[in-house]
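Sequence design from tokenized structure. All designs in this work follow the same two-part layout: the structure record, then the generated sequence. An example of the structure record is given first.
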């Protein structure tokens, strides 16, 4: 288990999801570990959006995500695409639709 995941379990020990994450990690297989990291990201996301901005939560989120990527890479069978698309569109659904349609067309 990575340091960030340990920090999450310590920080959110009272959250019911933490027990589920710990149980997944005890299974000692890569699939369960990936699922545990995904659940951990969800816990941090909920905490980040539930109150005022807390930079330590953002840092923890990023560390957990990096650890998850390391676990996935260690499996050696990562069939995901290696790119990220960021679309900075706020409150403009038509622009977002046009952008997504354009990306879809390019992929075809």
């Amino acid at each position: 288990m990575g340091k960030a995941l340990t920090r999450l379990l310590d920080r959110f020990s009272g959250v019911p999801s933490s027990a589920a994450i710990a149980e997944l990690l005890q299974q000692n297989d890569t699939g369960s570990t990936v699922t545990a990291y995904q659940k951990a990201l969800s816990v941090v996301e909920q905490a980040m959006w539930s109150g005022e901005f807390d930079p330590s939560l953002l840092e923890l989120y990023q560390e957990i995500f990096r650890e998850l990527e390391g676990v996935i890479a260690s499996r050696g069978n990562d069939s995901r695409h290696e790119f990220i698309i960021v679309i900075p569109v706020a409150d403009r659904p038509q622009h977002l639709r046009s952008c997504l349609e354009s990306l879809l067309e390019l992929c075809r």
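The helical segments are 3-11, 16-26, 30-49, 55-75, 93-107. We note this feature because it recurs in several other targets discussed in the main text.
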